[in-house]
Amino acid sequence: MGRAPCCDKANVKKGPWSPEEDAKLKAYIDQHGTGGNWIALPQKVGLKRCGKSCRLRWLNYLRPNIKHGGFSEEEDNIICSLYISIGSRWSIIAAQLPGRTDNDIKNYWNTRLKKKLLGRRKQSNMNNMSSMGGETKDANGQEDDSYSPGLSSSAFERLQLHMQLQSLQNPLSFYNNPSLWPKLHPLQEKMIQNLQSLNEFPNTALMEHALPSPQPVQGQKVGFYESPTAAKVNELEKSLHGISSSDNSVAFINENNSMDSTHVPKANGIEQSNAGIQASVFQAELDNFLNTKTVDFVPQEDQMAEFDCFKEMNVSKDGVLWWSMNDFDARSASLNAWESTSVLHSQQIFQEYELGYNL
DNA sequence: AAATGCTTCAACCGCGCTGGG
DNA sequence: CCCCAGCGCGGTTGAAGCATT
Predict the structure, then answer these.
(1) Percent share of chain A, pLDDT over 70
(2) Does any domain span residue A23?
(3) What sequence ranges are listed for the domain Myb-like (predicted)?
(4) Which residues touch strand C (CB under 7 A)?
């Protein structure tokens, strides 16, 4: 037994809206507002439409100041950064882009941005692989088919994108520590095994073959990078507060030529140098794609101290920057010139993001 | 010029959440 | 506390337009 339909489907018109219907709806809402009840609205307006359909039409097309198409590079950057940070929360992303609707952004991501990003990765990987004379595989060793069934699942795709970022930035992160993984249902285990079996080359092995190990230089960054997300938010931070308060997963060589353990957990089977190379390669790709300026940033102890939860989890706060609670609210308040959807329902949502993606 | 394939995007669908009764 | 109507969201669909053969 399914749920009751929201309206009488038989007596409701479906499909594209006519100019007359648009005009009717717009005129009514301009004059009376929505009345706080979309279900009752079509009757009042005299439209044979479902209330949900009216709402959608108004929000996505008829309401004032809607922008269609022509996404700017700045908007691209914001969408990409937020997608990597929070996933397909289109309404939240839309709230950061005045005049854009969640539907528009969702379509834009699915039809263009995603392909642009993955397409570039594909191209870049092909370049890497061509020097090896191997067949085309992505950085995870998978058959590099950007449109493969594996990527058709948005959840898996997002996971993959995020894992790429996460593992490149922090080779000792959760994703690279199976011992930290929660127990899975046997079917889930099986699925993961199947996915892994597709990987002819483990991630690091692939890069090990592709690239020589770097020689760390005293005082230099060794490959961990500030993600575009972090850079973007850092920029926003600066513009909002006039200071930089974000932190990034940047590994440093201290004066003794050893890793600064404040920021980098002790190695456990994965060579930092390889991770560094992976990161720099990916950074180049992503920076190129996002056209985001990479900002040199030296994290301070007191800044790290803000993130006790990361310490407890024995991982550095990685460069995939999570909106800190107060920051996000403040940012939302100042950037969200648009009305509509509440940007954040509560701090809890983002605590979940932090926990969920960093665990 | 016609057929076919591909891309785009408006609209629909169904589910989770919320608040009022 | 429970139920239910309505809202809002994310995923999906399918028609229209465009590109290619």
Answers:
(1) 31
(2) yes
(3) 9-62, 63-113
(4) A 4, 6, 15, 36-40, 51-52, 55, 88-92, 102-103, 106-107, 110, 154-155, 340-342
